[in-house]
């Protein structure tokens, strides 16, 4: 009697979030997402992956893998169901707003440079910083 490969219904691709319920476990080193063709035997899909720790891996004896999004030969790899996280478009804007607050909002100056001549705008910015050129 032949046994069927083990699968998990809650496993999703780390890159696109597509279901990997039909993928046999353990994931082969060459396994790819059927939706986006991303490698699946990668650190980003592993339960030990954590970008907040050294080497981004919570497994203390695992060899370091430099590219966390490419297939690797790590023997400690264990896929985790919640590997996919959506990107928050507001987070980028919040970071830009925080930088503008920290360094001053010069958005009016930026719009002026894109509307006018770039060389004249650059000259004007230099004069604003250092004063007019005294020849």
Structure report:
This protein has 135 residues and is mainly alpha-helical. It folds into 2 domains: 1-84, no CATH class; 89-130, no CATH class. 27% of the residues lie in helices and 0% in strands. It has helices at residues 89-103, 107-115, 118-130. It starts with 88 loop residues before the first helix and ends in a 5-residue tail after the last helix.
How many angstroms does the end-to-end distance come to?
93 Å
Largest sheet: none
**Radius of gyration of CA atoms, rounded to a whole number:** 24 Å
Catalogue the unreliable spans. none
Rough shape?
Answer: elongated
Number of domains: 2
Counting DSSP H or I runs of 4 or more residues, the number of helices is: 3
- How many strands appear in the DSSP assignment? 0
- Judged by helices, strands and strand pairing, the structural class is mainly alpha
Which band does the percent of strand residues land in? under 5%
Helix content: 25-40%
Mean pLDDT across every amino acid position: 82
The helix/strand series, from N terminus to C terminus, equals: HHH
